[in-house]
Amino acid sequence: MNSARRSPIVSPKAGLVMAVLAVSVGAILVRWSNAPSSVAAFYRVLFTTLPLLPVALHRYRDQFRLIDRRDIAFATLSGIALALHFAAWFESLNWTSVAASVTLVQAQPVFVALGAWVLLRERVTRRMVAGIGIAVIGMVAMSLGDLLGGVLVGPNPLYGNALALFGAVMTAGYVLAGRSLRQRLALVPYVVIVYGACTVSLLLIVVTQGHPLTGYPPREWLVFAGLALGPGLFGHTVINWALAHLESSVVSVSLLGEPVGATILAVILLSEVPTFVTIVGGIVVLVGITFTSSASRA
Question: Which GO terms describe its cellular component (predicted)?
Fold first, then answer.
């Protein structure tokens, strides 16, 4: 088993590069969609979850019976947080630049560290405090710098940036709620419960907002499928696979390539050039995230 893990058929590093490219496409696909953001988020999660159900019911049926109510409750809470993340982040892309939205939503390690300190009483090191402080400075620069400079990329960057940050906070909630569960539950049962709760939550958001679930042109369904296939299957699924073959620090740092990749794609495919303040603020945020993540693993 160990030799198989050390020598996979596909290079884990090559797989990780493909995964980062796949998740980088996510923001572009959201921008290409003309459907309400919550609808796009709903179908993104639904189409990612559906292929897992036959596998879960066939191979993991007995494990589902062993899951207690407390674990189901925490997995459901994790799924609700994930749904709020998707809803907020997808909507943020309607109001601010791809560069700002993707960078700010990637700040979840900062909020995980803060949440672990406040809720779980985990120790906060000086390096973590420094990383959080650096990231916050970058967030402020990205959120306010362009407004003060009079150059706007997006209809309402401040609102869009706030939604992206809320999405990052919800991702932190998703991580914290599921942290202990992954030590007790197999990956597929855990993912099915979390994604199932996420799908139902997004469905409720869509219905509450009064958006239709059908009647969209074929182009929209291709975008929905692309969101599930690219960022979902070839992105996050491959990232989870790579974690079995690479150090978590390598994977975490590699994920910081998503804002870079998404920004480059936005320039090429959307003709959206970020402002100088956004670029500098984004770099500062990424440095802060790197500091916080490395300190959390130390």
Answer: membrane
